[in-house]
Structure prediction request, 310 residues.
Amino acid sequence: MMLNRLAGLLLKVRRWVVQLAAFGLWNSLLFPGLKALPCPALNCYGCPFAVVACPIGTLQHFIVIREAPFYMLGVLGIIGALVGRISCGWLCPFGFLQDLLYKLKAPKLRLSNRFGWLRYAVLVVLVGLIPFFTLEPWFCKLCPTGTLEAGIPWLALRPDLRHLAGWLFWSKVGILVFFLAWMVFTRRPFCRFVCPLGAIYSLFNRFSALQLRVDESACARCDRCQEVCSMDIRVYENPQSGQCVRCLECVRACPKGAVRLAGAEE
Amino acid sequence: MKLQKYHILLFISLGLLLLGLVRTEFQTVYAHARLLCLSCMGLQ
Prediction:
């Protein structure tokens, strides 16, 4: 019942308004004490205005200090079990940026989701194994979100830090520029092929309480769902795809009304 | 209501969250998140 209400509400509001509001909320500096709360999306806690903790940064920190991150895994598990990967589509500032950049007029490069497994490799290697053996949070050291939200703003705000910008900082800027350019041509490349938080949430999409359903008898297989999909998925082939960020653009766009959001019980 | 897979995931996650709260892990999260890690920003 509650999930049906949520689905109805999501279809009524404009997604960019929620994405903008989420960006403002995670980086409002209004409630600094909230940094004990995990952000449900990828948002760097090094940002001078951040009020919540990045889940991936926190997971790496617990790995480095050799403690089990029960609290963070519990929060991510609850979100994943209830709504799957919806945070990526509605609450992630970096996802929002990718949606905006893809709207720029430029030739578009469509890429298959065949290489989506790369994000699991990033999760295991860069977030798990390398921090475990080197005692350094290596995903954070390379993360373009951190460069955009923390590295560059700190250098802008604190001139006394500028002399510290060395090869690692400029490498991070290079990675950021690469992804920003890619985002203009391809839909959400960071979410589809790199994001380790998206990889964690992806595991829940198949089992979450909130599900995307396709009425196969109504579906005309016109591929309109793929045309509007943030993640370039052919929704009727696999509505529970781990790549789906539940942006609901397919629900709005389907000319036959064949795609809908529903509870797992239905 | 029939038991669904998400119920099991939800119970496990709630258990993990409670365990984390009992171990006051949020204090570790807070302390670390407040720290300005210059090396993570490539400033070193």
Notes: DSSP finds 14 helices and two strands in chain A.
